[in-house]
Amino acid sequence: MLVALVLITLNLRPAISAVSALLGAIKDDLGLSTPAVSVLTTLPTIGLAVFAFLGPRLTGRWGEERLIAGSALLLLAGNLVRLAPSSAALFGGTVLLGAAIGLVTSAIPSLIKRAFPDQFAGLMAVYTVTLTVGAAGASGLANPLAEALDSKWTLPLGIITIPVAVLAVLWWSTKLRRTSRRRNHLVIPSAMWRDKLAWNVTGFFACTGFLFYFVLSWLPTVCRDRGMGATAGGLVLSVVALVQVVGSLVVPLALKRVGDQRGLACSVAVINGVGLVGVMTAPVPAGVWISAVVLGMGQGIGFGLAMTLIGLRARDAVTATGLSGMTQGVGYTVSALGPLATGLLHSATGTWTAALVLLVLVSAVQFGTGIVAGRRGEVRATG
């Protein structure tokens, strides 16, 4: 089971981070406008939001294992479609990938909560570490591969995304023979929508995702606009992603030492704000590299904590399924605004200043929601 989880998780970020690193080449090759590029970077997050809402119902019908196995096939299909060098294939394949990633991310917290209830925090750390390793590897390899292969973007994108996707399909296909369909009709409980704690867990996740997907989508472009090369911009994103691995590992260690997570959540917001200001305003190149390390730490701890809070605030696996659907559905809807709003602000103003102001405001909201979400307690699923 753990090997299968690692394989599918390795597929959830390269399809996004590799495109981000290759965005300049894609834009030039296909003649995309800046608004079109903003839509392209937003599509995966929209898919995450839509299918996170559908996740609890589909999990109840099929079970987590079968749902993830089907999503692995959808991931492979989306990656294959994007090999065609056309705008239609690029956008269509991205829609498929967003749907698949949304289904997987909605199912994993409840699967871990059900299968490994006593190891939830540790295994969520493994999950987030694997996510960040996949993102770091893809963003760091994309441009060097393009240069080595003398290919604009389709070939390096395929090399990065398809082999592991094939392995994931082969491994998860074995689960179809070992698990039976469920007939539970799981939904997000109505009481959860009225629960203050549930909304603050959702808000913390939403702010974390907003900042995360801005960085994943636009950081290489920000670096290029500040005078760094395309390869250097991709490597800055890789540094952020690699440091996120360290940040993710901080979460389970910190949870053993503190009674609640308020201090950790508030620290995340401050670190994120400092890192974002740094990568967008600090002297090039040294200031950008240092700020990338700071930002990576904040995002690694933040994403790991945001995912872990889903299980910590849920009484059982059924509640975790509902809270996962609410948190990730609403959270990714807000997250989709990260690359879209900041991209449009940049397009309208010609600078990243307005986008930076927005990002700092989101960090402040993350601080506020973290105070409530980090307090020990459980969300209400009934009543």
Poorly predicted spans: none
**Count of separate DSSP helical elements:** 16
Strand content: under 5%
CATH topology-level name: Growth Hormone, Chain: A
Q: How many structural domains in the coordinates?
A: 1
Index terms:
Growth Hormone, Chain: A, single chain, 16 helices, 383 residues, mainly alpha, 0% strand, 83% helix
Task: Give a written overview of the molecule.
With 383 residues, this protein is mainly α. The protein has a single domain (2-178, 189-373), classed as MFS general substrate transporter like domains (Growth Hormone, Chain: A, Up-down Bundle). It contains 16 helices and no strands. The chain has helices at 2-10, 14-21, 23-30, 34-62, 64-81, 87-115, 120-149, 154-173, 175-178, 190-193, 196-225, 230-255, 262-281, 286-312, 317-349, 353-373. It is globular and about 55 Å long. The model has no long low-confidence stretch (mean pLDDT 86).
Concise description?
With 383 residues, this protein is mostly helical.
SSE map:
Elements: H1 2-10, H2 14-21, H3 23-30, H4 34-62, H5 64-81, H6 87-115, H7 120-149, H8 154-173, H9 175-178, H10 190-193, H11 196-225, H12 230-255, H13 262-281, H14 286-312, H15 317-349, H16 353-373
